[in-house]
Amino acid sequence: MNRDRYRRLAVVGVGLIGGSVAAAARRRGLAERVVGVVRSAERIGRVEACDLVDEVTADLAAGCRDADLVVIATPVGTIAALALEAAEHASADAVLTDGGSTKAGIVAHVTRRCPRFVGAHPLAGDHRTGPEAARHDLFDGAVTVLTPTDDNPDDAVGAARRFWEALGSRVVTTTPERHDELLALTSHVPHVAAAAVAATTPADAMPLAATGWADTTRVAGGSPDLWREILLANPGPIAAGLRRLATEIEAYAAALDRRDADALQRLLTEGKRRRDALGS
Prior knowledge:
- Helix content is 51%, strand content 14%.
- It is elongated, with a radius of gyration of 21 Å.
- The longest helix has 24 residues, at 176-199.
- The strands form 2 sheets. Strands 3-2-1-4-5-6 form a 6-stranded parallel beta sheet, with helices on both faces. It has a 3-stranded mixed beta sheet with strand order 7-8-9, with helices on one face.
- Helix 6 (154-166) links the parallel strand 8 and strand 9.
- Helix 4 runs parallel beside helix 5, helix 7 packs across helix 10 (235-258) and helix 10 (235-258) packs antiparallel against helix 11.
- It starts with 5 loop residues before the first strand and ends with a helix.
- The protein has 280 residues and is an alpha/beta fold.
- The chain has helices at residues 16-27, 41-50, 60-64, 76-89, 104-110, 154-166, 176-199, 211-217, 224-233, 235-258, 261-278; strands spanning 6-12, 31-37, 55-57, 69-72, 95-98, 117-118, 120-122, 143-146, 170-173.
């Protein structure tokens, strides 16, 4: 159980992830005051209507001023700059963490200049976005990956771990580079594959698209702007993963060309084995 209780928690970016961090922190009493920092005045009203934070502002300096914990939950292309700016206004011993789905570039850019920034990626989400999609139980039972480096002091890593655990998640630790290699295969490539399946389905087939098509393509409903940034932030591992996928798909095509039932059985069995290993 997390025994840390922060005086002021600043959440920069109050969408699905940031809003859920704020809602869970309030529900679990992890901070005396939870402040949301948003990018525009228009967003303030939306966040207030969702009752996710105690206070919301479009002024980063004001929102992070004297915060002893800062969570950056914006698109990956903006996390590094915002983390460094937030650190200038937070308390001197504040812990900073994030929710970005790529890590190597962000951590390399931030941690040497801000050692109390501990990279994190909660493996929880939804194809829906915005504060309206946030919920306090989003992280319950989910894995959060921490990616500490030698630049991080032990107390900052420990505090980040306890915070994410207190939100309900199970924390695992790896390097930023290994995180990006593995997430390319478990998240980024599947998203591209889902988008490709959706894009190659002709309009006249859509009346026959049922639950199988919907389940396979669900994540393709995510924000293209958001996913463009994710893909460009992790290009090498994703491209390598897509080539692995292309090899596997070509094996299916070749087996079909040969009418090779045994080969199809092997391919399908291996896919089922990997999927079954995850559980329901």
